[in-house]
Specification:
- The chain is an alpha/beta fold.
- Helices cover 33% and strands 19% of the residues.
- The chain has 14 helices and 20 strands.
- Strands 2, 3, 4, 7, 8, 9, 12, 13, 16, 17 and 20 form an eleven-stranded mixed beta sheet that branches. Strands 1-14-15 form a three-stranded antiparallel beta sheet, with no helix packed on it.
- Strand 18 and strand 19 form a beta hairpin.
- Helix 3 crosses helix 11, helix 8 crosses helix 9 and helix 12 crosses helix 13.
- The relative contact order is 0.17.
Length: 477
Amino acid sequence: MFSEKDLQQIKQHGLTLPEVETQLENFRRGFPVLPVVRAASPRDGIRILDAEERDRLTSLYEKSADRLKIVKFVPASGAATRMFKELFAFVNEGVRGKGIDRLLENIRKFAFYPELEKLLPKDADDRTIVEYIVSRGLAYGSKPKGLVTFHAYEDGARKAVEEHLVEGAAYASSEGVVRIHFTVSQEHMDDFKRLLAEKVPHYEQKFGVRYELSFSVQKPATDTIAVNPDNTPFRQENGSLLFRPAGHGALIANLSEIDADVVFIKNIDNVTTDSRRADTILYKKLLGGVLLDLQQQTFTYIKQMDEGKADLQAVARFIGESLCVKLPEKWDEALLRSILDRPIRVCGMVRNEGEPGGGPFWVGNDDGTESLQIAESSQIAEKDLPLMKSATHFNPVDLVCGVRDYKGRKFDLKKYVDPRTGFISRKSSGGRDLRAQELPGLWNGAMACWTTIFVDVPITTFSPVKVVQDLLREQHQ
């Protein structure tokens, strides 16, 4: 199937032939659905913390922060194309929907309007105004969301990436150092670095901190081969194979390389303004406190096992009640230890108010346990979709991760991925249809074998910008 030239291309991509053959087999067989048992709900997988617990756990995080290496991890490589899809349709095809009317009627309310106004030709008509937002002028349609101006302030507007600097200073500082890691596309790396080099001194002075910023790109070795509709390798006009980025699940490799004790993960577009940020800061610290509290007890039990002093019944109760893993009727010390000795993620979950997003579920595992997972609708069998509709909460991507073991060693996060949870999508290249394969999602299958804890957080911590008109919501004004 593969020529010597193909094998060289595979090797240059950082892939091996067995890896590519596995990808081809995935296309032929497809991926199995997730064995969901039921949706997690309050007090059945989703922790509801009272005021006393919130105070205790927030205090625990605040007192511990200076002895920890904390990193804020922000996936920021995605282009803003979908954010401006309706605008492109208006400019390129003349399709004018209600969203365009709303945009133009409120154009002066957008934080980017002063920048836009300077670029617009005199007497610009509606189409020209929109064109100067997406393809000319601001050219936001070809930029990542992180470089779009989101919010207006008296001392100047801020782009989305700047709001993560502000957030980081509020809850991810350790001994005055704020470490933030951005995953960006190679083509926009210089733009991010240029903007942040210009802005960082201002925020360091404003908040009395020092920023340590780092960047990475999605690794070519995480790309997947594309195939034709008949599952044979897709070849480009020059006869070469086509490899495509395999979705945000590929970022588990980037996350694995982060040197940290605690990692906060949050999407680039989920930010709000200073006046509405208090809940975000409070609940980030709270989630961090939940993580540290569970880690302390988990590490204690593992050390007791090492010394032969563990009360296994107490360990089993802790696993069931605090780590949210339901044990089979027959379990042994080896199973208990395997559950304790894993990376831990604490995930904020927001009450379901109709926003898009995966949901929290109980899932059956090969070892006979049931544990918590974040699942997307594409992972769930049609017969189980009513379970998703019954979910009380959804996933806003609000994670705090413990990535070291009880001896302080970094976990190899790639060992905790469930490779069965990828999915196949339909794409095209050069006008030809193809099938593409995405790796298990970063907060779905890529963390399937982690210990997962869900905590109820308020909707005020969730302010995503999926389409440009979302910037007119009160959370962004």
